[in-house]
Design goal:
166 residues; mainly beta; two-stranded antiparallel sheet; globular
């Protein structure tokens, strides 16, 4: 992984509902989407991705339990992380990630511990869809969120992280 490549992180977060926060480093912040069922490796599956507030880059390494009185309270683990390459183009010309997000379509190649290959984010009204692009890493038979439930940092599951607050 290159030191200058932008980072991505996928945090599993058990707040009001269990979901995965997919975050991409863009212009010095983590642009974020809550993906209720997590990323899919199946190119025929469209996953809802609800935009959330930007987070600081330092938040990419956060694991723990957010206190009950705070927004987003609940357990958080770093489910996956790595770097990404922005592949977004318009008529063969590169489009930077911030502009791609503003336009409503972003295509990225992830190089993580668990996730590899290309995904597309597409705005549909106020929400977005996250879809795996057909490539060598697509696998409709594998549900990575079930097969690989542990944090890449602590090795804990979301349930084990929640139990640390007791």
């Amino acid at each position: 992984m290159s030191d200058d490549a932008p980072l991505f992180v996928v945090q599993q977060h058990d707040a009001r509902r269990l979901h995965y926060d997919v975050r991409l480093e863009v212009d010095g912040v983590l642009k974020s989407w809550a993906v209720p069922r997590g990323p899919s490796l199946d190119p025929t599956v469209k996953r809802l991705a609800v935009p959330t507030e930007d987070h600081s880059i330092e938040y990419a390494e956060y694991e723990g339990v957010i206190a009950d009185s705070k927004y987003g309270s609940g357990a958080v683990i770093v489910w996956d992380a790595g770097v990404f390459t922005n592949l977004t183009e318009d008529h063969g010309h590169p489009v930077d990630a911030a502009e791609a997000i503003d336009r409503g379509h972003l295509k990225v190649r992830l190089q993580g511990v668990k996730l590899h290959g290309t995904w597309a984010f597409t705005r549909t009204g106020q929400d977005w869809l996250l879809v795996k692009v057909r490539d060598a890493f697509a696998d409709p038979r594998l549900d990575l969120t079930s097969a690989e439930p542990r944090s890449i940092l602590s090795g804990l599951t979301i349930e084990e992280m929640a139990a640390t607050a007791s």
